[in-house]
Amino acid sequence: MRIALLDDYHDIARSLADFKSLSEDLNAELTVFTEHLGHDDEAVISALQPYDVIIAMRERTPFPRQRLEALPNLRLLVTTGRRNGSIDLEAAKEHGIVVSHTGYKAPDAAEHTWALILAAARRLDIELFSADRPLTDPNHWQSTLGMGLSGKTLGVYGLGNLGARVARVGLAFGMRVIAYSQNLTDERAKEIGVEKVSEQELFASSDVLTIHLKLSERSTGVVGSTQLSWMKPDAILVNTSRSKIVQTDALIDALNNEQLYLAAVDVFDVEPLPAGDRLAATRGVIATPHIGYVTVEQFEIFFNDAVADIRAWAKGKPVRVLI
Hints:
There is one protein chain. The chain has 323 residues and is of the alpha/beta class. The chain folds into 2 domains: 2-105 and 295-314, Rossmann fold, CATH 3.40.50; 107-287, NAD(P)-binding Rossmann-like Domain (Rossmann fold, 3-Layer(aba) Sandwich). The protein has 13 helices and 12 strands. The chain has helices at 13-16, 20-26, 41-48, 65-69, 89-94, 107-121, 124-127, 161-172, 186-192, 199-205, 225-229, 248-256, 296-314, and strands spanning 2-5, 29-32, 53-56, 76-79, 98-101, 153-157, 176-180, 195-196, 208-211, 236-239, 262-265, 285-287. The protein has a 7-stranded parallel sheet, with helices on both faces. A 5-stranded parallel sheet has the order 2-1-3-4-5. Helix 4 (65-69) links the parallel strand 3 (53-56) and strand 4. It is globular and about 60 Å long. It starts with a strand and ends in a 9-residue tail after the last helix.
């Protein structure tokens, strides 16, 4: 059995889970790819054709139909996390490929959302010191005015598990918390302790607006120039969900035209970011490299569950199968 473990940028998987036991018990041969294979179909397919099992790190390497059809040896595809919109499950089923998932620790992404909110509100992108900007440099001493959050309005677009966690922290900060999504009910809003509002009020009233929608056909591009035009010019937009929920060109225009103060983002249309990415180079963007889920605790769950998925599949009793 040949196993490929993809996109282990930190080269940490083998220290967090017992992959060695798969070699001993199942005669498995593990190859760890610590660098991204890229976006070229031919290169990705060429690298992965020999493998029976592939472990994918979230959506870092997509598996659409054309890639799955070109991997004749593939029989098990494990995705870290509970869902993966970049895998064509129908094509996998047609080609006899089992797709299993792992567990997921939701609080990590909510915590990172607040890391970005606080970084933006206090302009830590400018105020943090480093070797290149020493604490003793008078030119970098108190160069910005921060935004206090108590009494401000936090808008939560999507009040699911992550959105609710973020909302509760906003309440703890003394913020007015409002929420909207197409399926949000009065009962759900009351349960979390927030106000249900219309889409326009969400964008128009929020001092900080954070997005927590699942990416789907309905949510793709749902935040565009119209929604951004409703926002206050001193507001902050935060996106730790999926980049394609927000129309990138519209966001760049809003920032360039100063319709929006800051955008704090952890997700991009193409990852890893190519050189010259327009959003990354835009004024008012505070960005992190999709690290909302990148914690030791999360990766321990990912890789240990991946080992368990492979063992169960090898015994003919696959677990956590995505349908």
